[in-house]
Amino acid sequence: MIDRRTALAGVVAMFGTALYAPIARAAGVAATPGAAAGIPVISEGPPSVAVFTAPQRALMTALSERVLPTTDTPGAIAAGVPAYIEKLLADWAVPADRVPILAGLDAIEARSLKDYKISGAKATAAQQDALLTLAMNDQIPSGGVFFEAFRQLVVTGYYTSEIGMTQEREYLPVPGEYNGAFPYSQVNKVYSA
After folding, report:
1. In contact, 142 and 104? CB cutoff 8 Å
2. Which end of the chain is less crowded, N or C, counting CB atoms within 10 A of the terminal residue's CB?
3. How much is the pLDDT for 41?
4. Is 192 helix (H, G, I), strand (E, B) or coil?
5. Average confidence (pLDDT) over 160-183
6. Which residues make beta-bridge pairs with 9?
């Protein structure tokens, strides 16, 4: 089974040069400020500092599930994406890296209260989707910057989790026999090795 660092290195190619800085640091493709020579080990356990307030954490959790919802496979919450995001922002982000995420969450919360008279975390799925669409289209303060960074965090957290690697994708450490005439219509999952 591959580890999270190896999976992160594969994610780098997916996002290219616009990779969010904490993800690049964790994958080892960008220097970590204050780190000793070499790539530090991603520590286990809780985040080293609290990044989110309780309302921000609740909103971040709800929105992560809207980016990758539960379908026939588990969604972002089941894959532990919210904990991954907080850990990455606590241990791999400099304070300036956190600003777009925190400001975006605050702007979405303010817009939810204005438009729906309810906290974004308690809004319906359709309302949360509308709020994310506003952010994606840069129709809330710093929305575009927030959305791109947040989307990368959710996708990276999901596809480097055990659920993302083994249930969303099918893990085959050694692929089966070669069949050059295999019908494409029978391909069900993307394979990761």
Report:
1. yes
2. N
3. 52
4. strand
5. 73
6. none
CA distance 26 to 42: 7
How would you classify the pairing of strands 191-192 and 170-171?
parallel
The two structure tokens encoding residue 142: 């710093």
Q: What sign does the CA torsion over 121, 82, 26, 52 have?
A: positive
What's the whole-model pTM score?
Answer: 0.73
> Reduced to 3 states, what is the DSSP secondary structure of residue 132?
helix
What CA–CA distances, in Å, run from 14 to 19, 36, 84, 105?
9, 28, 19, 25
Q: Which of 23-32, 119-128, 146-155 has the highest mean pLDDT?
A: 119-128
- The string of DSSP letters for 155-191 reads HHHHHTSHHIIIIISEE-SS-----TT--GGG--S-E
pLDDT tens column, 95-120: 888 999 999 999 999 999 999 999 99
Q: 171: which strand partners?
A: 192
DSSP 41: P
Q: How far apart are alpha carbons 116 and 113 in whole angstroms?
A: 6
How many other C-beta atoms can be found within 10 angstroms of the C-beta atom of residue 68?
A: 23
